[in-house]
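Q: Here's a chain of 531 amino acids. Please give me its 3D structure as tokens.
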Amino acid sequence: MRRIGSKVDLSSGVARERYEKYLELIDRFEQIQMVALEGGGERYIKRHLERGKLLARDRIEAILDEGSYFLELSTLAAYGSTYSTGASVIVGIGVVEGVEVLLVANDPTIKGGATNPFSLKKSLRALEIAKENRLPVIYMVESGGADLPTQSEIFIPGGATFRDLTQLSALAIPTIALVFGNSTAGGAYLPGMCDYAVLVEDRAKVFLGGPPLVYMATGEISDDESLGGARMHSEISGLGDYLASDELDAIAIGREIVESLGWKKLGKEPRTSFEEPLFDMEEILGLIPTDYKDPLDSYEVIARLVDGSLFSEYKALYGTNLVCGFATIAGFEVGIIANHKGVIFSEEAKKATEFIMISNQRETPLIFLTNTTGFIVGKAYEENGIIKDGAKMINAVANSKVPHITVNTSASFGAGNYGMSGRAFNPRFVFSWPNAKSAVMGAAQLAGVLSIVARESTPKGQAFDEEADQIRRQYVEDQITKEQEAFFMSGRLYDDGVIDPRDTRSVLTIVLSAINSNTIEGTRAYGVFRM
């Protein structure tokens, strides 16, 4: 391996200008994120605390090992919609009794923790992550069930929650429910379908229908405790496996359950010793162009991500718009595919295809650092076979079996998004930098294409309305500019979170550790072939 050098100087004009500009974007990102971190707001938080309950984030902090990490996922879910940013549920990867687990916690300060369409998508994505990476699941339950006005959007797909929980159990991936409050209607099946159920006395209420519904349906009069209280379920129904005296006791029991699992990872162990990158992560902010059409120097980024800034590059002199090679991150071996100058030509597509195949033979996870406006277009390139070469790359990505981790560092447009293992290709994790943009094409290009189509569709002899076209173009460009933003895309769960570029190595370290909880196997469906 060779060490990658760096030419970044934050005291220089261009780098300093980029750095200062990016700090403004980070500030905007933090303001958006703070809305999710604040939960239901002061009024509802105060009411929750006055009831003697812990906040959802405090419950998570209490169950985690002291000094360990919590990688929150899908923090901006529902951003840009009519629902609260964060979608009334918190999910993430943390460490409990030395075991990496997937945590899901309802936030009852937001509409009682009711499940809306975005909450459902976020929770289902969390269970998918747990299944793919073989992570035990801890549910911290306190929810009033479905958000009834949106039942038509969540009732049918909501059944997947129960399906996924039972499938996790069938795969011997433990599921643990800690019930702190209401767990009603469909939500009552959460503790029922988890392997372990811990109920807090005088707090947990688990029933398919509450006292009012039971009375209306049967005429039977009952109260919360007798109908679905923690003691009843622990002594009579048998739903509760453990009766906790209070919330902290429930959390302590949850930790004891995890400790008793004797959980072992099935993946590769990282190297025990490694060097930190030679260059400061802070400098990444001075690397990122303010215009996605300007290239991002992949070597400079890789030098700040990989151990010792050491990189074994593959086909360094061929298809130079794409950088491929092997390295380690926190001792974990990885293959890296990074867009260096944006556009993907036939050479880059063929190079990536071969590298993906080799990585599968080596059973090495792949990290995609995405910054592409797509595959090259034009008559000469079509004649040269860009479609079939691009198809080879996409085919290789689609059939690759080693884990993929995608980081959208800037542009992710058109089929380039697919070739760089976008969300549709089921990478294990997808993260975006705040400046990242994803769409069919750039906003100006898309608006321009629609304008050309409209102009060519104008009947002969009829004047083309230039003023109306200009208004329409501006409207479309403004719309696409908004919709291609990282925050908007993350709000729709097209990634697993927007991250500060300076945190990229730390985030990659956590998820590389998580994916090694499961076995890592490459596909044996093909050998490496020349194209």
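Q: Can you summarize the key feature?
A: The two ends are 26 Å apart (CA to CA).
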